[in-house]
Amino acid sequence: MELEANETVLVDRRDGVVSVTLNRPHRKNALTGAMVERLHALLEDVERRPEDRVLVLTGAGGAFCSGADLSDADSPAQGDAPTALRRVRQVGDLALALHRLRKPTIAKVDGVAVGAGLGLALGCDLVVASDQARLSMIFVRRGLSPDTGTAWLVPRLVGMVRAKELALLGDLVDAETAREIGLVGRVVPVADLDATVAELALRLADGPALALSLTKELLDAAWAAPLDVVLEREAQAQAINLAGPDAAEALRAFVERREPRFRP
Fold it and tell me: I want to staple 184 with a disulfide (CB 3.0 to 4.6 A). Which of 7, 65, 105, 129 is the partner?
């Protein structure tokens, strides 16, 4: 186990799972400029480290993230227009780095996930929410328009008609409604949230890292590609898998009637 602490961002590494906790519970884990920079650097670090196989993103104190802290000195709301543009772009760069991370990611959502916090949650591959979670594209209620990738993510998850309703009204959505419309994948009792996510994370960490990475790339790229392009990408990815050790191990395990062991 490896544990790092950076006051507002906590990092716990164990068994191939990197658990990242936003740690400003008194502000419902609202993002500061320093947190955005720290998270971006952390994603780059996870990408480089082969021992980091899965990333779990969550928040402390019964909340996921209440969005950007607009009172923070490094907030886009503080400063002139060029400064605001630069700082919003930094948030966008973080969202893009999360989307492009070649390792599986899980959002563990309790309490509020709104604004930029919603963008970070939906930017993960799997979203598991407690029955106490509440989600919102809250931007319009703050006199703002969507950022952190939500204008791209939400329509793809729930369809354009419902996305416009969520974006233009900015209402809070309870966990079960979020599951029904496709914003989250699973809803569990708050008492079961930690155990459920830990089980999923270990399952992914024990999986075939290369195949999981290529699967993410195929699914993400399929949004904007015709079928013939996707088929060719599938063929290339499958050839890479078949030349690697994980597929060979899976075949041996099948022949020997045992579970495959994909970790080095």
Answer: 129
CATH class of this structure's domain 2-205:
alpha beta
Residues 238, 232: Cα–Cα separation, whole Å? 10
- Other Cβ atoms closer than 10 A to 221: 12
- pTM to 2 decimals? 0.94
Mention every residue, 6+ apart, whose C-beta is less than 8 A from residue 68: 30, 31, 75, 76, 77, 91, 115, 116
Radius of gyration over every alpha carbon of the chain, rounded to an integer in angstroms: 19
Write down the domain spans for the chain.
Answer: 2-205, 209-255
DSSP code string of 22-73: E--GGGTTPBPHHHHHHHHHHHHHHHH-TT--EEEEEESTT-SB--B-TTST
Q: What is the pLDDT of residues 243-254, one digit of tens each?
A: 999 999 999 999
